[in-house]
Amino acid sequence: QVQLVESGGGLVQAGGSLRLSCAASGRSFNTYAMAWFRQAPGKEREFVARIDWSGGITSYADSVKGRFTISRDNAKNTVYLQMNSLKPEDTAIYYCRAGSNYWGQGTQVTVSS
Q1: Around Cβ 6, how many Cβ atoms within 10 Å?
Q2: Are 58 and 35 in contact (CB under 8 A)?
Q3: Which of 15, 20, 25, 28 lies at 20 to 30 Å from 1 by C-alpha?
Q4: Residue 14 half-sphere exposure toward CB, CA atoms < 13 A
């Protein structure tokens, strides 16, 4: 069982940056691949980024490649999403996921033009 709590969302102007965090409880955090997803109003939830258990392999949606960076600190049971050069179309609720079954409650990111 893993519980996830996201934080770090907020309101930022286009071109700005935010760093999201996802803190996990449970003893097996370092065995899970972790991912970030997002859901904009009226749209389906979409994949943003993924990192394997060791942090050595990452993947990104084309829409965020080169602007967002996913990382993890297994000693702190935390995964991060550094978001730079934000655009209004990045506005969404951002969710982290552990493995394929465990989701956080989400954190709102709003990018103003």
Answers
A1: 22
A2: no
A3: 20
A4: 5
Of residues 40 and 55, the one with the higher pLDDT is 40
Q: Is 30 helix (H, G, I), strand (E, B) or coil?
A: helix
* 57: number of Cβ within 10 Å: 10
Single-letter amino acid code for the residue at 14 = A
Average of per-residue pLDDT values in the chain: 96
User: SS3 for 20?
Assistant: strand
Furthest C-alpha separation in the chain:
42
Q: What Å distances lie between residue 40 and 10, 12, 66, 89, 91, CA to CA? A: 14, 16, 21, 9, 6
Where do the H-state alpha helices sit in the chain? none
80's tokens:
């991060």
Give 44-79 pLDDT, tens digit per residue: 999 999 999 998 999 999 999 999 999 999 999 999
DSSP state letter for 85: S
